[in-house]
Design brief:
This protein is of the alpha/beta class. About 45% of the residues lie in helices and about 10% in strands. The radius of gyration is 17 Å and the shape is globular.
Length: about 270
């Protein structure tokens, strides 16, 4: 089973505006139209079995809307599931939203500290991580530089390491191989720690030799295939991972077996 742990899609009425804004901000090309149907078509054509959508609540008022939409995605598209989101500046929402997400079968949340304007290890958000850990929900963090936003970088490897120190039972995924364009610091602070790294939007910049070396050093069992779709094409990302200097067992683990276990989908693989 091949699982893209890190993809993006939007409700049909919002997708054109979202894709237009994001492509303008990052000066990059989108490889889908940003809709769920477009993402589903893209993964079918590439031979990917499942994609996990990672939405972001940039305002507290968006949280319930996003988490309700995540349920609709699962009910409408068998090849897609969506994580939910929380907003770091709405602590009054945290407990109720987490309880509702668990009841709805949502397996985790996405946080983007740059878009949500908080440092990932701010003391004010540590209680949110404890609630998520207690609930058994996965947290995927955007990590490292975001090319569409100005400095500062709010989720640096050293700050993510601090989060792991504070909440050691949190099931965390650091996107972009632990920190986009900050891989020296990833090797210093995160390699070997108890967290997952996803491969999204990293291979072209870090190169296959360094990615393979980092996967070996961290442990292939803690690496998850991701594309950051629509910002990279699935077929090219799959080809790149399959060409890495890894064993077939390691490649199978990265491409889907690890994510299936993490998401409780082993029976589907």
């Amino acid at each position: 089973m091949i699982i893209d742990i890190h993809a993006h899609a939007f409700p049909d009425d919002l997708a054109p505006r979202a894709i237009g804004t994001l492509t303008h901000n990052c000066d990059c090309l989108a490889f889908t139209d940003g809709t769920c149907s477009g993402l589903a078509k893209a993964i079918r054509e590439a031979g990917v079995d499942l994609a996990v959508i990672m939405p972001i609540a940039t305002k507290p008022t968006q949280t319930r809307v996003i988490n309700s939409w995540a349920v609709e995605v699962r009910e409408t598209y068998p090849e897609l599931i969506s994580f939910g989101s929380l907003h770091p500046f709405a602590p009054a929402q945290w407990a109720a939203e987490i309880e509702q997400m668990k009841a709805d079968g949502i397996r985790g949340i996405k946080l983007h500290p740059d878009y949500q304007a908080f440092f990932v290890d701010d003391p004010e958000v540590i209680p949110m991580y404890h609630l998520l850990a207690d609930a058994g929900l996965v947290v995927l963090f955007h990590a490292g530089v975001d090319i569409g936003l100005p400095p500062p970088t709010h989720a640096t490897p050293d700050r993510l390491a601090h989060v792991l120190d504070e909440v050691p039972d949190l099931t965390a995924i650091a996107a972009h191989m632990g920190g986009y364009l900050m891989w020296d610091d990833v090797e210093k602070h995160l390699i070997g720690r108890d967290l997952y790294l996803d491969t999204s939007y990293s291979l072209a910049d870090m190169g296959p030799e360094r990615m393979a070396a980092m996967i070996k050093a961290h442990g292939a069992e803690k690496i998850l295939f991701g594309t950051d779709s629509p910002w990279t094409p699935h077929s090219a990302e799959l080809d790149g991972i399959r060409a890495l200097a890894l064993s077939s067992e390691e490649i199978d683990a990265v491409l889907g077996n690890n994510a299936a276990k993490l998401l409780g989908l082993e029976d589907l693989s």
